[in-house]
Amino acid sequence: MSRRLTQYRGGGYDGCHWEWNFFMEIDGEHHDISGSYYYTVFHDIFSSGSYGISKASDKDKLNGRQYVYDLDNPDEVKDFVTESQPQLVLGVAKYIEENTDVDMKLTCPICEQEWCADEIMLHPHDYKGYGGTAIAHESYLCNECHGINSCAYCCEFYDPEYQESEAKYHEVDSIIDENGYCMNCWDHSPPVPIVPDPRQLALNLS
Ligand SMILES: [Zn+2]
Ligand SMILES: [Zn+2]
């Protein structure tokens, strides 16, 4: 049995634009009284434009410049995860995780832990616009780091490095307070309850 991911130049709308497209193939075997036969299930993960391949019979459109990754080889999976654009990796990894048992762990650059694609999101600020036509995200992060570094009130995400420099600039310990509210929302932040001194309480009761 073999499971392969193919990354190829799809797209091709008016003119010569192309973009990365992906399909996955899973080989299977079937045995019954009449014998055994082998088959391949084709998964169109993402196909676009006139070079897009949405079914196995369109594979003759491949122009020889595709990359094929063996999904059962952890080194090749790692190559794909580390060498390709984060937004593509994340989309493909989510698809593969949903449809196979292939482990596609992605490393969060903030906490440096490995997570399933399900627990990863694109970095909300870290992207590049290409001539206003497309936006390519440069990185992703785990949901947990996103939650910890987002304001509980306005939901704005603050990159840890940015938080540090802002805190220094405003001479505060942190731009996110004990309630998880960012500086812009401090007016709305509920007062932190003062925990009464138990000895004082005892005195009042007596
Ligand atoms: Zn993280
Ligand atoms: Zn806020």
Give an overview in words.
The structure is a single chain. The chain is of the alpha+beta class and 206 residues long. The chain has two domains: 2-106, no CATH class; 149-188, no CATH class. It is 24% helix and 28% strand. The strands form four sheets. A four-stranded antiparallel β-sheet has the order 3-2-1-4. The protein has a two-stranded antiparallel ribbon with strand order 5-6. Strands 7-10 form a two-stranded antiparallel ribbon. A hairpin with a 3-residue loop joins β8 and β9 (134-137). The longest helix is centred in the middle third of the chain and has 14 residues, at 86-99. It starts with a strand and ends with a helix. One zinc ion binds next to loops. One zinc ion binds next to β10 and α3.
Task: Summarize this entry quickly.
With 206 residues, the chain is an alpha+beta fold.
Main traits of this protein?
206 residues; alpha+beta; four-stranded antiparallel beta sheet; two-stranded antiparallel ribbon; 5 helices; 24% helix; elongated; binds zinc ion
SSE layout:
Layout: E1 3-11, E2 18-32, E3 35-46, E4 67-70, H1 74-83, H2 86-99, E5 106-107, E6 114-115, E7 120-122, E8 127-130, E9 134-137, E10 140-142, H3 143-148, H4 160-170, H5 198-205
This protein binds zinc ion (2 copies).
Strand order in the sheet with the most strands: 3-2-1-4
Q: Sheet with the most strands? A: 4 strands, antiparallel
For the termini, the CA-CA separation is 78 Å
Domain unit count: 2
Uncertain parts: none
Please report which band the strand proportion falls in: under 5%, 5-15%, 15-25%, 25-35%, 35-45% or over 45%.
Answer: 25-35%
Radius of gyration, rounded?
25 Å
Total DSSP E strands:
10
Total helical elements: 5
- Helix and strand run: EEEEHHEEEEEEHHH
* Overall 3D form: elongated
Structural class computed from helices and strand pairing: alpha+beta
